[in-house]
Amino acid sequence: MARKIVVAAAQLGAVHIDTPRKAVIDRMLVLMKEAVSKGAQLVVFPETALTTFFPRFLIDDKEVLDSFFEHGADLTQSPNLKILLDEAHRLDVDISVGFAERTPEGKGFNTCIYYSGSQSRILSKYRKTHVPGTFEPFPNPDAINQLEKRYFEPGNLGFKAFRVPGLLPDALKKETAGGPPSRELEGKGDPIMGMMICNDRRWPESWRCYGLQGVEVVMVGYNTPSFSPDLVSSLGPKNEVDGEKEALYHHQLVLKANSYMNSCFSIAAARAGRDDGKYPLIGGSCIVDSEGHIRAESKTTDDEVVVAEIDLEEARQGKEKLFDFHRHRRIEAYGIIPSQTGVVEPPFLSQKEELPN
């Protein structure tokens, strides 16, 4: 039985440090309407979509820093987010949107939410887990900084998959299923989704946590520099052109591989372009299927909508055969994964020691 939905990645072009929040939101509204006009039921926006990627700047003034965050315990009443959520409700479309969150306790998180237009409520909230970068700026004045560790706490909500009502008219409900989910009923309920942010997509643990919950669609918003040797590797490309190619390659690599290994679709939405005329970000917004193939992708680094129809039933092939976790996972062999953080190399061999068989 086909389980088809139409999804979109809403890519945003350059947003400068002095770009008014309203101007960015107006652009997002245009993208949302365009996506809906093309049949989209779900629109995914980038990481920290409402502002420039401010962690590249050293900001000591607390008032200035706080101006980049959304505040309050009830994010539906955040004035900036409310504009987007109200329009999503009016258009009857679901959206996932990233932003900087300041909690009532004063903590900062790199956050995204999933809002159901039909339900008129937030279904899930995620906070970025794998916070990259540094606390202090690089000594090199020309380096591109990523001071996320200075401004954001590591996420504390985990990777919690969630079901989304209203997208599939024939989805099984608790009442019609006659009981809780079971092996025989897998892939027949409302779509199972998960969210992650930027650097999270590079860590297989992020995807496997969702895969073990039967995830069918993973949404990823990101801001990825196209050339940042101080952040990534001094052994890599030596110029922006080659750097962009390498960054796009790794971006697509992790989406393709992890979508395939967890038998799920993924939707990736970029903040792209050259912020403030000097900070280049890749585009590469795309929709990847459960076999690791790109179904649709952006052609520019400007504001752009990428749309595709996906059939969630296709993901059953991997979930029931090659990556049937029920039959093939060997958890007794994976103990090192949850018990160890850094690398611990095996002991050195002695000159006289024979290698083990």
Automatic annotation (TrEMBL):
Pfam families: CN_hydrolase. Keywords: Hydrolase. It comes from the Eukaryota. InterPro entries: Aliph_Amidase/BUP (IPR050345), C-N_Hydrolase (IPR003010), C-N_Hydrolase_sf (IPR036526). Residues 5-312 form the CN hydrolase domain. GO terms for molecular function: hydrolase activity, acting on carbon-nitrogen (but not peptide) bonds, in linear amides. This is CN hydrolase domain-containing protein. It comes from Cladophialophora immunda.
